[in-house]
User: What shape does this take?
Amino acid sequence: MQVALDEIINRYKAGSRESLLPLLQDIQVEYGYLNEEAILKVGKHIKLPSSKVYGIATFYDQFRFVQKGKFHIKVCRGTSCHMHGSLSLLKEVERVLHLKEGQTTRDGRFSLEAVSCMGACGSAPVLNVNGYFKTAVTIPDIAQIIDFYRNLI
Ligand code: FES
Assistant: This one.
């Protein structure tokens, strides 16, 4: 069961600005992203304008502002995967799903994220869907992988 936003926020002392990052991290762990309500409530709680909360959060790559899809696709953009064409894979996922990196499809089924090395360089290029690795991926594989997950829904 999901922990209520207010319950997470109230774990931290009101007015404590040093709580900002751990508080945002806790919310993201629970919800998977930071929405407008969370930014506003956090700002109110630690007495920091919400524009500043948002500005600080956007500085860190770890925070997302869009809810992940049911299937979250990570395309590795580390050096080895880059050398094996991962940029083309990323563009192909964008083309097939009609979205851009960092976005979620309107139906909420898929989201796409470019990430740094996932530790499987020997099998580059790699992508990962909900924790499952796909290795030595080729451009034609992309449509097949996406179709596979579409058919699971
Ligand atoms: S660079 Fe892609 S897994 Fe290491």
Remarks:
- The beta strands are 71-76, 110-115, 127-129, 132-134.
- The CA atoms of residues 40 and 72 lie 26 Å apart.
- Residues 5-59 form one domain.
- The two ends are 22 Å apart (CA to CA).
